[in-house]
Amino acid sequence: MNGETTYLTGLAEVLWPCGGLLGRGEPGTVRGGSAPDGDGRAYLPVPSAHNPRMILPAGNRYAAARAVGAFAQRHSLRERLRAAALTAAFASGLAPLLLRDRLHVGPGHTVEHELSAALDRRVVIAVHVGPPRANRKPVLLLLTPAGRTVGYAKIGVNELTSRLVRAETRALELLAESHLRDITVPRLLHEGEWNGRPLLVQDALPVGNQTDRPTRRQLLRCVVQISGLEPVRVLRLSLSPYREALAERIAALGGRPETAPLRACLDALPDARLPFGAWHGDLTRWNIAGTPRRAFVWDWERLAFGVPVGFDALHYELNECVQDGVHPGVHRWLDTGARLLRDPLMTGAGLVPGTEATVMALYLLDLATRYLQDRQAEAGGSLAAVDDWLLPALSGLRDRAAREIGEAG
After folding, report:
1. pTM score
2. Phi, psi angles (nearest 5°) of residue 38
3. Counting beta carbons within 10 angstroms of the beta carbon of residue 348, is it exposed (0 to 12), middle (13 to 18) or buried (19 or more)?
4. Can you give the residue ranges of the Aminoglycoside phosphotransferase domain (predicted)?
């Protein structure tokens, strides 16, 4: 088995304590025979057990086809064509003939039973696995047997992901009491535990063919409205609780080689006056969609307060810029990120001209600390390689921040 099949079998032990066994076979077959009550079942790892990105029910083509559409990223023509082909294969019943790997689940109490009891209705699940990352956790799409979406569930599988599931639960509780004028967020439907791990269930946002990536203006409106989840305060950096907390997070990295340059950069930044508010923490094209009138935002597991306003805009822009390569993308972001912060919507939120590089440097310091704390580089992903691109970018921003403050003064 490779690392991914090992991950898959470990995930099966979390979701189906009654046992999950990799194998090959025809749809609907379960080793040892099907249970009379229908508890025995088989799932299809897609595209394969060696590279699982989705786990779909082999015996319910309606639910499987709906799951493909729900999990698909349609941000390019290639992605849309791949999703359409896979959806058609499941809807026609051909997919189980083409995808021969199986995850066989035996009879017994499973996560489906737990979720059905929590929601007081029978649900079928499909699982989004995603690429290897330190914070990778299963996202379960909950469907009726006829394929109608009921909601999504998340389960922590290790210390980091358990912390994130609990954090998102708290965030959704808070957001239920907040008013975001142009943003819709998921409702928390259930909080509990499964197999000794935290479990949350949230409803599904109306995201689909009628939504698209946000426009620049819509993105910045979202950034400003999210920052206003707490009263925005304008403070000198040296007097802000944020700077003290960031310094403590950097110090907690210990003797890592990145610790000293991160601390040196923080110490060298000018003592600018900055607005501080809330941020989503992971606002990317995968967590936001919009119509001309409304934005839909999900995955609130990193919601935080008291950070410089503009971090969400910088995070979204960085992830867009690096789609075609980290190094050219970061070089482009150093320009486009600053332009985003100079937008009238951002200056209206309190960002003062001449502080753009300071905010960008603080964002990279925050991101680097997160990656190092979560050991993201060890799980793969070129963006998490802090010493490869982030430290050089920080060095340039530190010098640029000093120049900008001087010119503005």
Report:
1. 0.90
2. 85, 10
3. exposed
4. 162-308
